[in-house]
Design a protein that fits this description.
The chain has a single domain, classed as Peptide Methionine Sulfoxide Reductase, Chain A. Helices cover about 45% and strands about 20% of the residues. It contains 8 helices and 8 strands, in the order αβαβαβαβββαββααα. The strands form 2 sheets. It has a 6-stranded mixed beta sheet with strand order 7-6-1-3-2-8, with helices on one face. A two-stranded antiparallel ribbon has the order 4-5. β6, α5 and β7 form a beta-alpha-beta unit. About 30% of the residues are buried. The N terminus is likely disordered. It catalyses: L-methionyl-[protein] + [thioredoxin]-disulfide + H2O = L-methionyl-(S)-S-oxide-[protein] + [thioredoxin]-dithiol; [thioredoxin]-disulfide + L-methionine + H2O = L-methionine (S)-S-oxide + [thioredoxin]-dithiol. Keywords: Oxidoreductase, Signal. GO terms for molecular function: L-methionine:thioredoxin-disulfide S-oxidoreductase activity; peptide-methionine (S)-S-oxide reductase activity.
Length: about 200
């Protein structure tokens, strides 16, 4: 009788522990990288297509104003860049390869904006968090500069400060507004310019 009672207690204890253990399983490690490449709608759309990328968020970084809005950044007085924060799986995608993909999505020879979007907030930049990221970014930039078909590399490598997520209506813009987005992208000449800068 005592053995039967003890066995029942063990079964209950195991049943109560098992779900907790499953919930406590460590999450897979992820990493983030921040890039500016002109219109964040386009950067969000293109970066999301890179295998190993888990999430891309549009936002603002590089300026001194706290909690900037789109209207603030549009004044071109805040110092912010339109940027994207890329969350990726480092077991499937290296930071070096993500940098390689980044260069192919921008015109790094233009230090006044990108394509039809002009002004400081539309400039290119790679934002880094550690000395290791800076070293990788500088090597990647040097390699990319050798592959340019025209122009000179002007994209800076900058220390990352606060990243402020953009307003909800900017997020997933290309997915939610496919027709408007495609008209904008074609009219802006983004893909034609990329072909001229990088070839292919």
């Amino acid at each position: 009788m005592i053995r039967r009672h003890l066995l029942a207690l063990v079964v209950v204890a195991v049943a109560s522990i098992a779900p907790t253990a499953a919930l406590a399983a460590p999450a897979k490690p992820t990493a983030t990288a921040v890039f500016a490449g002109g219109c964040f709608w386009c950067m969000e759309h293109d970066m999301a297509g890179v295998p190993g990328v888990l999430k891309v968020e549009s936002g603002y970084t590089g300026g001194k104003l706290r909690n900037p809005t789109y209207q603030d950044v549009l004044t071109e007085t805040t110092g912010h860049y339109e940027a994207v924060r890329v969350t990726y799986d480092p077991s499937k995608l290296s930071y070096a390869f993500l940098l390689y993909k980044y260069w192919k999505l921008v015109d790094p020879t233009d230090d006044s904006g990108q394509f039809c979007d002009r002004g400081p907030s539309y400039r290119t930049a790679v934002f880094v968090k550690t000395p290791e990221e800076r070293a990788a970014a500088e090597k990647s930039r040097a390699d990319a500069a050798k592959k340019l078909k025209r122009g000179k590399m002007t994209t800076p490598i900058l220390d990352l400060g606060p990243f402020w997520p953009a307003e909800a209506y900017h997020r997933d813009y290309a997915k939610r507004n496919a027709l408007k987005y495609n008209i904008y992208r074609t009219g802006c000449g983004r893909d034609a310019r990329l072909k001229a800068v990088w070839g292919g």
